[in-house]
Amino acid sequence: MTAMLRAEGVSKAFGGVQALSDCTVEVEQGSITGLIGPNGSGKTTLFNTMTGYERIDAGEVYLGDRKITNLRPQRVFALGIGRTFQLTRIFPRLTVMENMLVAAQHTDAGRPRNPLARAGGRADRRRAADLLEFTGIAGHADAPAETLSYGQRKLLELSYVLVANPDIVLLDEPAGGVNPSLIQQLSARIRELNAAGKTFLIVEHNMEFVMSLCGQVTVLDYGTVVATGPPQIIRSNPRVLDAYLGLAEEEEDSDAPGR
Amino acid sequence: MPPGGEPALVIEGLVSGYGGGDVLHDVSMTVPGGGITCVVGPNGAGKSTLLATVSGLLRPRRGSITFRGERLVGKSPRQILDLGLVHVPQNHSLFREMTVRENIELGAYIVKDRRLIARRLADIEQMFPQVAGWSGKKAGSLSGGEQRLVEFARCLMLDPGLVILDEPSMGLSPKVLKSVFDAVRMMNARGKTILLVEQNARAGLRLSTHGVVMENGRVRLAGTGQEVLEHPEIGALYLGGAARGG
User: Fold this and answer.
1) Which residues is A149 bridged to in the sheet?
2) Given CB atoms, is A255 within the 8 Å cutoff of chain B?
3) Cβ distance A148 to A120 under 8 Å?
4) B240 in contact with A at a CB cutoff of 8 Å?
5) Domain containing A226 — which CATH number?
6) Hey, which end of chain B has fewer CB within 10 Å, N or C?
7) Order of strands across the sheet that contains B218-224
8) Which domain, by its residues, includes A65?
């Protein structure tokens, strides 16, 4: 069976720094898949290569059987791959609703927009209001986005990505800096969306969040995939522990495993 | 507890954070004088917030911080510097267009006595001969590891009692990491108490006499560097699944 979204042997260098080396990550249809790794391990770069924000040096990205390597971000988005960013990208002076309507100007995933439906029209507003209701920030619809808390901004960004109804949603650190009760809310919403058929790939440092949500987790370290498996296996994998705890200097002088 | 005399720094019940939320929840720990204490923990544990609060860059909401018997809470970063507590930040903090010598001299900007400055500079150049060799170079032309050593040299211009290092190994290759850690050991051997935060937990704990693991704004483990390094729970604190509370 082929994965719904697959990065195969992806490599990417920035100047002399090899950010990704021959990385393969698969996201099965209907799954919630996690992508973890210490700071600087290449998670966001891999996201960027899968969504057209960075060109890759080698390897391919597939959506089902279709090659989407190095397509521009808007093409990738139009094919049904939505993403959020680690630092939320919202328009701070616009209201929450206006932010949603900006997102609604994009095409609906995979289909050209109905030319008779005006962006910002009643249908868009209704859909935006429903999504804000769903993510729990409808009460702030008329407030400037800059007045939202950090966690609420993350919920806005999730709502905003959902406007285009993507088949796969890539979330870059959705729980980072978000308070525990909002994390619960976010987690519940992701589960509901998943139950309704959406596929997720999530980069996250909050281990309780990612391990409880994801069926499969891929671990990156220094731009290389070091493990893939269900959370329980990943937690007890010594190579994963090495990635997170580092190797002590003396060990690094000898030929330590896996480096 | 291993050697290490009187506590240099005592932190009790510290609550601190930015904006609406608390990052540190009731943090208590002791940094023994003459030792190297390493604080480790996963992303978002509150390590950098702890350092910022100790050096006065962030005012705590509750709790106390005492350095050699002096209360630090309420003092400005400048006053804390005067007490001999120096913080080397995580990001490259040298002036790239200035020479290494100029950068190091800037470390002594609160010192007025020219002879004292000259004497300290001589001591530091003896301690770090390689840094002395770069003195006319622009700081921006040095490698990441070399810049770290210059930052150490600069902080020593105040002859601090406590040196705070935020992730000294960040971005360094294993070989360079060793030379930077050797420099930390050397400062410690010359009587400086060291408090550092490390992302490379194993290397940091092995370097240190004392270790503290933070997670989610709380101290979860503390002991000698070796005890913490070998603690069975340490992996779970990073990868999830550790018992709550405690």
Assistant:
1) none
2) no
3) no
4) yes
5) 3.40.50.300
6) C
7) B85-88, B162-166, B193-197, B36-40, B210-215, B218-224
8) 1-80+198-259
Query: Residue B194: what pLDDT?
Result: 98
pTM of the full structure: 0.82
B120: closest CA of chain A, how far (Å): 30
> How far does A66 lie from chain B, in Å, by closest CA?
35
Phi (first) and psi of residue B12, to 5 degrees: -135, 125
Q: What average pLDDT does the segment B79-84 reach? A: 95
Number of domains in chain A: 1
- How far is residue B166's CA from residue B90's CA, in Å, rounded to a whole number? 5
Tell if the CB–CB gap between B199 and A252 is shorter than 8 Å.
no
Hey, are the CB atoms on A249 and B174 less than 8 Å from each other? yes
Tokens of A89: 């990208």
Q: What is the pLDDT of residues A203-259, one digit of tens each?
A: 998 898 999 999 999 999 999 999 999 999 999 999 999 999 987 665 444 444 433
Confidence (pLDDT) at A246: 87
Q: What is the H or E stretch that residue A211 is in?
A: helix A207-213
Interface of A with B in 146-185 (CB under 8 A): 149-150, 176-177, 179
pLDDT number for residue B185: 96
Residue A115 lies in a domain: no
Please determine, for the modelled complex, whether the ipTM score is greater than 0.95: no
In a domain, A179, yes or no: no
Query: In angstroms, what separates the C-alpha of B32 from chain A's closest C-alpha?
Result: 23
Give the pLDDT mean for B155-165: 96
Residues of B in contact with A244 (CB under 8 A): 42, 201, 235, 238-239
The C-alpha of A84 sits at a distance from chain B's nearest C-alpha, in angstroms, of 20
Q: Is B20 on the interface with A (CB under 8 A)?
A: yes
